[in-house]
Amino acid sequence: MYEILTKKRLNPTVTQMEIHAPLVAKKAKAGQFIILRVDENGERIPLTVAGTDAVRGAVKIIFQIVGATTHKLNCKKAGDTISDFVGPLGEPTHLDGLKKVCIVGGGVGCAIAMPVAQELHRRGAEVTSIIGFRNKDLVILEEEFRSCSDRLTVMTDDGSYGEHGNVTAPLKAMLDAGEHFDCIITIGPLIMMKFVTLTAKPFGVPVTVSMNPIMIDGTGMCGGCRVTLTQDGKRITKFACVDGPDFNGYEIDFDEAMSRGRMYAAFEHSAHERACNLFREVD
Amino acid sequence: MPNMRPDKNPMPTQAAEARKRNFREVALGYSEEAALDEALRCLGCKHMPCVSGCPVNIRIPEFIAKVKEGDFEGAYQIIHETSSLPAVCGRVCPQETQCESKCVRGIKGEPVGIGRLERFVADWHNAHAADNLEKPQPNGIRVAVVGSGPSGLTCAGDLAKKGYDVTVYEALHTAGGVLVYGIPEFRLPKAIVAKEVESLKRLGVTIETNVVIGKTLTVDELFQLGFAAVFIGSGAGLPRFMGIDGEGLKGVYSANEFLTRNNLMRAYLDEPETPIMKGGSVAVVGGGNVAMDAARTALRLGATAVYIVYRRSMDELPARAEEVEHAEEEGVIFKLLCNPVAVLGYENPDDPRDPKNGFVSGLRCVKMELGEPDSDGRRRPVEIPGSEFTLDVDAVVMAIGTSPNPLIKNTTDGLEVNRRGGIVVNEDGLTSRRAVYAGGDAVTGAATVISAMGAGKLAARAIDAALRGEKEKEA
After folding, report:
1. Any idea which of A22-31, B91-100, B466-475 has the lowest mean pLDDT?
2. Is A87 on the interface with B (CB under 8 A)?
3. In this prediction, does ipTM exceed 0.90?
4. N or C: which terminus of chain A carries fewer CB neighbours within 10 A?
């Protein structure tokens, strides 16, 4: 069993927790993920590591309440335990040699982008961050980003906070103005990562995207997390759990990944309804 | 007098019509009468050809002699001396190509039902006798075992019985490896695996779930933690796909994923937490035991039609005859001499938001014929031009094998692997790294439970010999 050390509500649908998992805390690097199960019979879900504290043996996770499992997790409080927590899985984000980087985060993806931005800042790289949300109420981690970024732009879809529009708008403006980046690292909804990649393409800036497909074991056994890449004109299969989760944005088949991500949409919807009804009865 | 009837006592089974819609065990096991009768078919050959066919050399005529006497516990003790998982092996071993293939009775009739007797004895023991699980005198030497599948459990058990302080590291949340995530309940009830794991714990073995060696800890760190030797039994790896169009469609599974969702994650429940596609028609590509497991699982999940698509003919089908027979009885349709060329998907041209878009709608196949034998002697399947046809299916399960997992290789300097990525070992199971041993699918690629157990056993013996040698040198 793994104890929940702290719990904090970041916005109405996003929660931050620290879980006691000393071995994971000692090892995890920016870009890696963990898999957890809330309880016996529970589903295994992957979540990216949002930070670690090796001294306290704490691993920070940030999750959006989207389905039955995240709903159940959100009902736990500090001091409670969850049954399983394994990691760190996947390859860390490759940051070696990067001097000037643009981080583009969207929604809860910002939680994943944050440790990457922090690590780059710690290494002395120049960090430009663009983070986007649907509206003012959903903005998270603004202060954290500000403290590790040389420049920060906050975008909201409805203009209720920061600048009005998509994350691609300020990115395009910077690239148009002749701004140079060694790399753009983008983490967020697939559709956003796809358009960040398309925006960067005319300028030839390398784009790293972080994939978060459906997964079970996360150790290279089930193959559920496969993504299709195009390399040298050939389509090849890679596994996000052992080859990723980071991939070259120009190679990823985003449309297939978006379609595969919705495989269990109907199931997830009804499972979430069931979970909500259950908790309502308990309340 | 031996019983000279040419046929084995048949294995009682659940009727095909009933069992194809439930996950309860198909084979029900011998009664005491059937076991006694079957045991009497054994001639007790002095040269014991059957023993040479067993990867762990169970003393078969001796245990069967005990069954003849009605001393079932005595029979169990003989099996248990060489096999740590008799209830498992009695169920999943391919006896027909191992011990039973060497049986003298097989020349003029059916061989003795050795596997069925082993299962009977193990089940009798589990139902009637308590395990003698006295902890052996500890020798204070720590050994780490990576993976809790058949090779790891066997290696751990053998070392624990010799007094070693053994820790087994398991990546998943439940111990048992392929016995839990891969082999379905209807062939191997999970309670049997859980009992074996429990016995190991009572012997003093520590099982650490949720630890991925190569990620959470490396092999080198295990030595830093004070382990004197490491056994790697991490199993087979990443599922293979065919590389044909449409494998990214929704509804295309690897057999590993399909079986793991059902077995380990219990997607068969009425209101499961982990989803799986239920119902519709399903094509399973491949002809091994894993393919049969996937096909029969799909049936039990409610599929209306299940096809096995295999590019050679019935004679070349690598699955066990018993599994093929069971699958046929349950209504699995064999599309032999057929090879998939593309997975087809549904796309509504008028409605991009149609929820069916992107789901599998069919499997395009081409008919094959057998040509000249290739280097391994099997006749090579050749496409028949112009013979393409489409199977209307809603899901496709690829059961065409795995390629080795890279996690341990990539994080262990000096660990030699072969061209296919399998860990290279010598005749003792020793790898290119000092005090690091390996066995099972991580070495051989996909093979059987019993050969993995044999490898675990061999390595345990070698680890014991090496560590005792070191201790004596120190003394």
Report:
1. B466-475
2. yes
3. yes
4. C
Chain A within 8 Å of B248 (Cβ-Cβ)? yes
Q: Residues B176, B197: contact at Cβ < 8 Å? A: yes
* Contact by Cβ (8 Å): A129, A196: no
Give mean pLDDT, residues B272-296.
Answer: 94
Q: Which residues of A touch B253 (CB under 8 A)?
A: 224
Mean pLDDT of A208-216: 93
Average model confidence (pLDDT) across chain B? 93
A150 to chain B, closest Cα gap in Å: 33
Q: Per-domain residue ranges for chain B?
A: 16-128, 142-237+403-474, 241-400
Average pLDDT of span B304-322: 93
B380 CB-contact burial (10 Å; exposed 0-12 / middle 13-18 / buried 19+): middle
| Amino acid identity, position A62 | I
A8: three-class secondary structure by DSSP: strand
pLDDT confidence of residue A78: 94
Cβ <8 Å between A222 and B209: no
Which of helix, strand or coil describes residue B233?
Answer: coil
CB within 8 A of B174, min separation 6: which ones? B180, B209, B264
- A197 touches A209 (CB < 8 A): yes
Phi-psi region of B286 (alpha: psi -120 to 50; beta: other; left: phi over 0): left
Q: Measured between beta carbons, which residues in chain A are less than 8 angstroms from residue B274?
A: 43-44, 216
CA quadruple A27, A37, A68, A7: dihedral sign: negative
Cβ neighbours for A98, distance < 8 A, ≥ 6 positions apart: A120, A123, A125, A182, A183
**Closest to B58 (Cα-Cα) out of B80, B36, B39, B43:** B80
> What's residue B69's pLDDT?
96
- Kindly give the interhelix angle for A190-200 and A254-261, rounded to the nearest 10 degrees: 170
Q: Which fold has domain B241-400?
A: FAD/NAD(P)-binding domain (3.50.50)
Q: DSSP state, B101? A: G
Q: Best of B181, B211, B215 to disrupt the A interface by mutation (most A CBs within 10 Å)?
A: B215
Closest CA of chain A from B92, distance in Å: 21
Statement: residue B96 has pLDDT above 60: yes
Q: Which residues contact A142 (CB under 8 A, 6 or more apart)?
A: A131, A152, A154
Fold of A2-89: Elongation Factor Tu (Ef-tu); domain 3 (2.40.30)
Predicted pLDDT at B94: 87
Q: Which residues contact B283 (CB under 8 A, 6 or more apart)?
A: B306, B307, B309, B335, B340, B363, B391, B393, B395, B396, B397
Residue type, A194: K
Contacts of B235 in chain A (CB under 8 A): 221
Q: CB-CB: which of B210, B239, B355 is closest to A85? A: B210
- C-alpha distance from residue B181 to each of A51, A158, B23, B233 (Å): 31, 47, 14, 15
- Both tokens of A129, joined, read 């961050």
DSSP annotation of A109: G
CATH number 3.30.300.20 given to A100-261: no
Q: Which CATH class is domain B16-128?
A: mainly alpha
Q: How many CA atoms lie within 13 A of B24 on its CB side?
A: 11
Interatomic CA distance for residues A29 and A144, integer angstroms: 18
